[in-house]
Design a protein that fits this description.
It contains 16 helices and 13 strands. By secondary structure, the chain is of the alpha/beta class. The radius of gyration is 58 Å and the shape is flat.
Length: 513
């Protein structure tokens, strides 16, 4: 019995772990190379590399899903937790963890109901953050100078907007072309809104005073780009007032809730953006007429009231009767008043002069002279005492002023001066020595690198009579005369010697200089 069991085990083939893993991989990937799976999205994780990992589940099972970065960028609808979707991809295995997973290539919501559920969830989230609040919406400018339009440049929407603006009140329009549907719609609209907000006011490309985000009508799938959370947040964060005009009047997207004004159609957005110029001019003319009539009526009423008040005022000549009469009375009483005043002052002068006798004045002078002599007698001893105090202070100061401390300080300062002079002399001599060494080294380097050292080795320098260096035979033949420099002097060949001062080099012959 034991022998039979040993034989049975010996006939069973042995596989490596990689063999089993490879066989399972070929089986699963070959059997499920292209599948469509419907389920609810569970946990969603986006790695730093851009790859997305999420779970797809139903009421009994869970499949791990993975989408690489290039696949994620092509998704029209990004999977979100709790969203019911239909995914398309292929089954793969991951040997290091002994698991199988679904490599998802595309994601589609499982019907319009799933899209509406996701839209409602986003609406509740943004509304809870206060992005739909009426208090944060800004008023639109009455007459913007520049209008920025975010839409497709090739659709009928931009033509309707431009036509309506031209009919009502022509304004400057900046168009930012974007895709209005598809996977590129949301990121391009976000870039357009943020780009307009980054314009510098008063720059070469002026910053718009008003933004219009517009698109024609379509299905919920066509308009889904304007339901993306990124678009809603960009519209809410815009510093420029924004009008949303996406779809027809019955279409509603997330951007409509966060925008400062929702227009039913792109044409309605243009009508809300600017007033009618003709109506505005008529209103101005009517207002000007009413203003002129009101001013005329006011002037008339004020003139009538002024005339009524003027009739109640007395005549100018009657206003001077009372002052004129008072002036006559005062002029009659003035001579008697002057005489009475002079008489009173004469009596007062007589009373005062009666008390002014020579004896009284002499007594006052004697008293003043006695006070003066008394003070003069006290002044001389005081001055003598002050002088004595000053002389004593001067003598004390003179005793403190001795020559010895000053001589010692001069000697100390002289020693310090001699020490500094010796140090300065040593430093100057050292600096001169270093400069002399550098000069000698430079001179030696000049002698070793100069061409005169080369002349010592048997070479010569050939120049023409103008002093130009000749390096070719043809140049020497063309020259009329040559000047050859050797190590011990220069030699002219041909021509006549120039009449100039000879060089310091020792001449050897008549033509050597």
């Amino acid at each position: 019995m034991e022998l039979f069991e040993d034989d049975a085990q010996g006939n069973t083939p042995e596989f490596t772990v990689s063999d089993i893993t490879g066989a399972v991989k070929r089986l699963i990937e070959g059997e499920f190379s292209h599948v469509r799976v419907r389920g609810e999205v569970g946990r969603v994780v986006v790695a730093r590399t851009g790859h997305m990992y999420f779970d797809l589940k139903d009421d009994r099972s869970v499949i791990a899903c993975v989408s690489w970065k290039g696949q994620v960028s092509k998704f029209r609808h990004k999977p979100e937790e709790g969203m019911e979707v239909i995914v398309t991809g292929r089954m793969t295995t991951f040997g290091p963890q002994s698991k199988y997973q679904l490599n998802v290539e595309s994601v589609e919501p499982a019907g319009a109901g799933a899209l509406m559920a996701m839209l409602e969830a986003r609406k509740k989230k943004l509304e809870a953050e206060g992005l739909f609040a009426t208090g944060r919406k800004r008023p639109l400018p009455f007459l913007p100078e520049v209008i920025g339009v975010v839409t497709s440049p090739s659709g009928a929407v931009i033509r309707d907007i431009l036509h309506r603006l031209r009919d009502r009140f022509p304004r400057k329009v900046l168009i930012w072309p974007v895709a209005v549907q598809g996977q590129n719609c949301a990121p391009e609209v976000v870039r357009a809104i943020e780009g307009f907000n980054r314009f510098t006011p008063g720059g070469a490309l002026p910053r718009p005073d008003l933004l219009i985000v517009a698109r024609g009508g379509g299905s919920i799938e066509d308009l889904w780009g304007f339901n993306e959370e990124s678009v809603a947040r960009a519209a809410a964060a815009s510093d420029i007032p924004l009008i949303s005009a996406v779809g027809h009047e019955t279409d509603t997207t997330l951007i409509d809730y966060v925008s400062d004004y929702r227009a039913p159609t792109p044409t309605g957005a243009a009508e809300r953006a600017v007033p009618v110029r003709v109506e505005l001019m008529a209103w101005l003319e009517g207002t000007a007429g009413r203003l002129i009539r009101a001013e005329t009526q006011m002037v008339t009423l004020r003139g009538q009231r002024l005339r009524d008040l003027a009739r109640a005022l007395p005549r100018p000549e009657t206003l001077l009767d009372g002052p004129r009469q008072r002036l006559d009375v005062w002029s009659d009483r003035l001579p008697a008043a002057l005489k009475g005043g002079v008489q009173r002052r004469r009596v007062l002068l007589s009373e005062v002069s009666g008390s002014l006798r020579p004896g009284v004045l002499r007594a006052r002078i004697d008293r003043a002279q006695d006070r003066l002599e008394d003070r003069a007698g006290r002044l001389v001893p005081g001055l003598a005492r002050a002088r004595q105090r000053k002389e004593e202070a001067l003598a004390a100061t003179a005793r403190r002023l001795r020559v010895e401390p000053i001589s010692q300080d001069i000697a100390r300062k002289r020693r310090e001066l001699d020490r500094h002079a010796a140090r300065l002399k040593a430093l100057g001599e050292a600096r001169i020595a270093r400069a002399q060494d550098r000069l000698d080294a430079t001179d030696r380097l000049l002698r070793s690198l100069g061409y005169e050292a080369t002349l010592e080795r048997g070479y010569a320098v050939v120049r023409d009579t103008a002093g130009h260096l000749l390096t070719r035979r043809t140049e020497a033949e063309a020259a009329g005369a040559l000047e050859i420099q050797f190590a011990d002097g220069r030699l002219r060949i041909g021509g006549t010697a120039p009449s100039r001062a000879k060089s310091t080099d020792k001449p050897e012959q008549g033509s050597l200089f």
